[in-house]
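Data follows
____________
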Amino acid sequence: MKKFIISIFILLFCFGSLQSQDFEVGFFGGGSYYLGDINPGLHYWQTKPAYGVLTRYNVNTRMAVKLSLYRGDIAGDDAVTKADVDRGLKFESVINDLSAIFEFNFLPYFTGSHKSYFTPYIFVGASGFTYNPKVGNVSLRDLGTEGQKADSSEYSKVAFAIPFGFGFKYSITKKLGIAVEWGLRKTFTDYIDDVSTTYYLVGQDIDPSDQATFLSDPTLDHEPGMQRGNPETNDWYAFTGITITYKFRFGSRARCLDQRR
């Protein structure tokens, strides 16, 4: 993860050394949600607040590279999504997402233009993120709810994802731009929700006062080896919202380009 962050900042620094190009810096605000074993496919269910910062390097009027750091809450609850009402599992987590993203504009666009002032766009990239599923203040990972403590197979709280999605950009003024976007993150972990494989205890023998074992099987109605989740499918999360950016331009050629546009 540390090498990933360093590489991103080196890349951004190299972009900054180029003349007659422009950067945009700004803020993101919106919502985040999750898809996985507890919510197999209901987009926008249990959407929580999300926010972040970003910087965008505009290669030309059709292509841009964005570096973003977003933070959002996600949650899942069998009682809400009805994915498995007999399971009774739930969780909540904070996602800290660092992404390097390539954007492609369908139309020529740059902030401040009188002609090319709007465009739909698509994007794809690479993300590193942290997560820690909890119920209340209790970390489910630390409890080993699928028996991870017994076989020393604790999952990492750091993982990687592939972000992709689409949006719409609009130039408000000579320096300000706004964009509305929706983006999914296809992750390489199945434990964002702490649910992946099988039960490991006899539910009817669990003492409800034993927090660790009770959270592994809240309905107290399962046997070891019964399916708790689907390890064949990894989890997803999404950010959706609005970005507002301010444009900076560098180099004498940049001013000439502005005059021609």
